[in-house]
Design goal:
It is a single chain. By secondary structure, the protein is α+β, with helices and mostly antiparallel strands. The chain is built from 8 helices and 5 strands, in the order αααββααβααββα. α1 packs across α3 and α5 packs across α7. The longest helix is centred in the N-terminal third of the chain and has 14 residues. The model has no long low-confidence stretch (mean pLDDT about 85).
Length: about 170
């Protein structure tokens, strides 16, 4: 397979996938070494530099998306690029989970100062958080953490991309 063929196949696979494709998965599909994938993706990104599409690295994989500055035209198609917003309670809860995971509901409520049942259930339904197991403590409370969908939703490669936490 030529370099150009590999790039075309990678581009088509990323386009056709509903979820970000990892370098490992792309390498398996193309029968290449995983180390070669980032360079191939970079070459594809350079081809899209002056177009309306781009490849972004999110949630441990690659995804083909429209450039943010194109959003107003996409919206004119009648396909708004808007997700139902999270409530303030859900946003606060999600931030606590992202920065403190694994964390129990009791620990979340201790930080927020209010019950968080509804917010936790909402985030579970949206697939932004998941159960990671149980804490080795009395009552064996459930531990929560963010999902890959969280990373994709917020355009993060990993949790290391979260902004630094400033506590005043």
């Amino acid at each position: 397979m030529t370099l150009q063929e590999a790039e075309q196949i990678i581009e088509a696979l990323i386009f056709a996938s509903d979820e970000p494709l990892s370098a490992q998965r792309l390498a398996e599909l193309l029968e290449l070494e995983p180390v070669s994938i980032p360079g191939l993706v970079e070459r594809i990104q350079k081809r899209h530099e002056h177009g309306g599409l781009m490849i972004r690295e999110v949630g441990g994989g690659y995804q083909l998306v429209t450039k943010p500055e194109i959003a107003p035209w996409i919206e004119k198609l009648g396909r708004p690029v808007v997700h139902a917003p999270l409530s303030q309670a859900s946003t606060e809860t999600l931030a606590i989970i992202a920065y403190r995971q694994p964390v129990t509901k009791a620990e979340i409520e201790d930080i927020r100062g209010v019950r968080s049942d509804s917010a936790v259930n909402n985030l579970l339904e949206r697939g932004l958080i998941c159960e990671l197991g149980r804490k080795d403590a009395p009552g064996r409370p459930i531990l929560y953490g963010v999902t890959e969908k969280f990373l994709v939703h917020f355009g993060l490669k990993s949790l290391d991309d979260l902004p630094p936490l400033s506590i005043s």
